[in-house]
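Hypothesis: this fold can be encoded by more than one sequence.
Test: take the structure tokens below, design a sequence, compare later.
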């Protein structure tokens, strides 16, 4: 297939693109800068210049391809509502462009939190609260199945990681520790976060694109749930800092989210797609140190 990928040069996209190419697909990557264009070209993919505000480029990419993987998200936690609004426009644009085509549309979202147990693929995404907008966008994509679009949502855990690179939400723990001098956790630190290595996640995006039926939800979860305290203890050791409870406000907008127990399962995903994570765990990668600035 010829696959249009947004966020093709990002932390996850830069792993998804090589995985697609290695499996024999062609890739058209959206690039908003010269640096992104060079990275996409170096990976062996074609480039379409544009960004999420350029809806014509999104329409063109969808029209020129057999399927779309949407990974771009600004992650501006100082203006999260604007990030969600951009995603909403993108989802609506792809929905209109792909309607009636039978083409695949795969987007990234997040695993939900379910009180008392790990979340599964059957659990609905939250549509209220600080991250509810992303849940609403994910549901919009799933509803596109009724418009002859092979829609699917890959729910990512709190930390998508790679040794020496970004660590997802764990990167925020690292940044806060460097800033405050304390490797901090919220509450008693027993709340659990799921995680996945970015190479394992990349492979699942491809498998979903190739095999998912319309309206599919998958969980890209390798580690069902590490406690926040265990994560900060490793970070503290690597940075030579003490570990202690800190106010939720230390983490700004996401402080309330950080205090929630939110493990997740991928048992159904593994059964449906034959996906088995093979890369190091989040704790293993954090233990290696060498955290980027």
């Amino acid at each position: 297939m010829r696959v249009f990928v947004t966020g093709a040069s990002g932390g996850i996209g830069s792993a998804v693109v090589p995985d697609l190419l290695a499996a024999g697909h062609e890739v058209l990557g959206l690039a908003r800068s010269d640096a992104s264009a060079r990275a996409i070209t170096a990976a062996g993919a074609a480039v379409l210049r544009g960004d999420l505000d350029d809806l014509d480029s999104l329409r063109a990419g969808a029209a020129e391809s057999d399927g779309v993987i949407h990974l771009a998200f600004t992650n501006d936690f100082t203006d999260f509502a604007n990030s969600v609004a951009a995603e909403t426009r993108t989802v609506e644009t792809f929905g209109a462009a792909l309607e009636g085509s039978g083409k695949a549309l795969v987007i990234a979202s997040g695993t939900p939190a379910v009180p008392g147990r790990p979340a599964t693929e059957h659990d609905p995404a939250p549509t209220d609260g600080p991250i509810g907008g992303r849940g609403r966008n994910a549901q919009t994509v799933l509803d596109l199945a009724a418009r002859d679009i092979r829609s699917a949502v890959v729910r990512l855990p709190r930390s998508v990681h790679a040794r020496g690179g970004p660590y997802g939400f764990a990167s925020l723990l690292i940044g806060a520790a460097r800033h405050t001098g304390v490797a901090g956790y919220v509450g008693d630190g027993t709340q659990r976060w799921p995680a996945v290595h970015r190479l394992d996640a990349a492979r699942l995006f491809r498998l979903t694109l190739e095999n998912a039926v319309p309206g599919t939800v998958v969980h890209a979860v390798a580690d069902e749930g590490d406690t926040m305290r265990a994560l900060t203890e490793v970070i503290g050791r690597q940075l030579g800092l003490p570990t202690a409870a800190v106010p939720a406000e230390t983490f700004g907008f996401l402080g309330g989210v950080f205090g929630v127990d939110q493990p997740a399962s991928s048992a159904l995903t593994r059964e449906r797609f034959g996906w088995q994570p093979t890369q190091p765990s989040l704790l293993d990668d954090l233990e290696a140190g060498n955290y980027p600035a």
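The CA atoms of residues 145 and 214 lie 5 Å apart. The first strand starts at residue 2 and ends at 6.
Hypothesis status: open.
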